[in-house]
């Protein structure tokens, strides 16, 4: 009888307000999802953990990173379910976190999460400052993917190679240096009003890194060859990162030099030529096209207006393709309504696309503009509604009724492909778990992971919305920092739209308490 009554109430609320409006009743709370997303980054921390670490099953790790090369590379983030610190996706993740903190600062602050967000960004930028040892030298990776993947062990027990790899004038990496420049520039904006000294430090590094990326051109995975198998610079090579970095530096400084760079190189670097249907750690075109559309709609194009209009035409292509209004040239979708770009770890593409549509919706609203797609006229609210549909799918509104964000909702993956999550913590099992022992005793266990990896966005379902929650199914069950990072801004925006102001799980002091110099790990 109680179940019948509850169902009757839910049906009534859906009829009265629409499904999205009763998501809070079903427990799908954007504020809670944002909080959990930030906790994932704490679980991915490398280095000496701070006293306010919330993920207690993690411990200090990687404390000698860079030692053999004579440089301090302690800190930063582990990439996914492994313990390699890959520079390119880490930098992209920090850029996305910073973008969310800039555009949705008020929404994040309303959840009392701004301190946590800035902490999360700073853990990455402190590491980048260490890694950028000279104007034209950037350490871009610690650890080796091959040797790391042969072992299944906790970060605290690591026995695998911690070799560090760098780019320099003789071994360039314009994509890696460009993305790191973008991350530093975006972070400088996020910190500007809270810690101007630190913001200025980040901007100095961003300018140097952009100069390095532009002057000494080349693909980073030709220099750091061990990255090629895991994070190869794709068909766009480094051209998109050079434009991306320039656009972020323009936003951070207002200096015309950087806007002119994006305009002068629009054709040769593909900025006005590439019409894309994805946005990711590898392909930045849609992101930079939307940022330059913002410049245009704010009336700051001046002599560059014709080229900026071409950029906006490509931004509109991306939006139309996502909303299935692009005369057949659309992003594929699953029957359940999820954008489908890649078989391997597809949800990272859905999360980044949803974030882009959310920010573009705001830019169009501010510019009092619509999008004329081939199949329909799209309004800003259509973009945010679609972005919300992707977020809702991620946290449970899907054919499996499963949240793919670990720890959010009542049903989520419990056999996540993640070393630390799948092995008992050092506080429970103090003895060392060896490389092979981890596979034998933990990797192949039928039982759920002993440690809940809150906020990890797993790879997600296949093109038919099917999902197999098994630890060895890494294409679907492995989370990445580049997948979760766009969700912080997205959930903040949706929280503002829905006015879902539930109490945050973890209060944080004011972000004005930041140190004026980078912390050391």
From TrEMBL:
| InterPro entries associated with the record | 6-hairpin_glycosidase_sf, 6hp_glycosidase-like_sf, Glyco_hydro_9, Glyco_hydro_9_His_AS
Give the reactions, separated by semicolons, that this protein catalyses.
Endohydrolysis of (1->4)-beta-D-glucosidic linkages in cellulose, lichenin and cereal beta-D-glucans
Could you state a single Gene Ontology molecular function term?
A: cellulase activity
Composition bias, Polar residues = 476-485
Entry EC number(s) = 3.2.1.4
Q: List, as start-end ranges, the regions of compositional bias called Basic and acidic residues.
A: 463-474
Q: Name one GO biological process term.
A: cellulose catabolic process
Catalytic center at which residues?
417
What PANTHER family does the entry give? ENDO-1,4-BETA-GLUCANASE (PTHR22298)
Q: Where is the Glycoside hydrolase family domain?
A: 30-490
Keyword annotations: Carbohydrate metabolism, Cellulose degradation, Glycosidase, Hydrolase, Polysaccharide degradation
Q: What is this protein called?
A: Endoglucanase
Q: Read off the Pfam families from this record.
A: Glyco_hydro_9
PROSITE patterns reported for this sequence: GH9_2
Q: Name the segments for region: Disordered.
A: 463-485, 499-521
Q: Which domain of life is it from?
A: Eukaryota
Which family is this protein grouped under?
Belongs to the glycosyl hydrolase 9 (cellulase E) family.
Compositional bias ranges of the Low complexity kind: 510-521
* Top class in the EC scheme: hydrolase
């Amino acid at each position: 009888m109680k179940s019948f009554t509850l169902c009757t109430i839910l049906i009534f609320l859906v009829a009265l307000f629409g499904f999205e409006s009763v998501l809070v009743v079903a427990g799908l709370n954007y504020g809670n999802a944002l909080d959990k997303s930030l906790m994932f980054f704490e679980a991915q921390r490398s280095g000496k953990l701070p006293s306010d670490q919330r993920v207690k099953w993690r411990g200090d790790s990687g404390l000698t990173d860079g030692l053999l090369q004579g440089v301090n590379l302690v800190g930063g983030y582990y990439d996914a379910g492994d313990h390699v610190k890959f520079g390119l996706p880490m930098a992209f993740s920090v850029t996305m976190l910073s973008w969310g903190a800039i555009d949705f600062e008020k929404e994040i602050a309303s959840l009392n999460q701004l301190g946590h967000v800035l902490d999360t960004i700073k853990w990455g930028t402190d590491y980048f400052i260490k890694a950028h040892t000279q104007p034209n030298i950037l350490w871009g990776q610690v650890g080796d993917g091959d040797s790391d993947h042969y072992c299944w062990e906790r970060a605290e027990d690591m026995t695998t190679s911690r070799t560090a790899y760098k780019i320099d004038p003789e071994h360039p990496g314009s994509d890696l240096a460009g993305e790191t420049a973008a991350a530093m520039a975006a972070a400088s904006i996020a910190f500007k009003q809270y810690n101007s000294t630190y913001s200025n430090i980040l901007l100095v590094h961003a300018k140097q890194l952009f100069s390095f990326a532009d002057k000494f051109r080349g693909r980073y995975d030709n220099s750091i060859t061990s990255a090629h198998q895991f994070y190869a610079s794709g068909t766009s090579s480094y051209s998109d990162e050079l434009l991306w970095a320039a656009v972020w530096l323009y936003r951070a400084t207002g200096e015309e030099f950087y806007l002119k760079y994006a305009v002068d190189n629009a054709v040769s670097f593909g900025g006005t030529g590439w019409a894309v249907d994805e946005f990711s750690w590898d392909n930045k075109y849609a992101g930079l096209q939307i940022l330059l559309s913002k410049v245009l709609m704010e009336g700051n194009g001046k002599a560059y207006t014709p080229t900026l209009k071409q950029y906006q035409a490509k931004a509109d292509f991306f939006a139309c393709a996502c909303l299935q209004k692009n005369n057949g040239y659309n992003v594929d979708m699953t029957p359940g309504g999820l954008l489908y770009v890649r078989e391997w770890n597809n949800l990272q593409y859905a999360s980044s696309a949803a974030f882009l549509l959310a920010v573009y919706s705001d830019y169009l609203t501010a510019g009092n503009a619509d999008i004329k797609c081939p199949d329909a006229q799209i309004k800003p609210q259509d973009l945010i509604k679609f972005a919300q549909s992707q977020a809702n799918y991620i946290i449970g509104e899907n054919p499996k009724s499963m949240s793919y964000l670990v720890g959010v909702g009542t049903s989520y993956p419990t056999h996540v492909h993640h070393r630390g999550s799948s092995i008992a913590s050092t506080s429970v099992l103090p003895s060392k778990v060896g490389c092979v022992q981890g596979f034998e005793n933990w990797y192949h266990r039928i039982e759920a992971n002993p440690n809940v990896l809150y906020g990890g966005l797993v790879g997600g379902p296949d093109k038919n919305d099917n999902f197999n929650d098994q630890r060895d199914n890494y294409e679907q069950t492995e989370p990445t920092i580049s997948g979760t990072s766009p969700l912080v801004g997205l959930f903040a925006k949706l929280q503002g739209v829905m006015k879902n102001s539930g109490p945050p799980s973890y209060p944080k002091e004011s972000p004005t308490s930041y140190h004026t110099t980078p912390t050391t790990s």
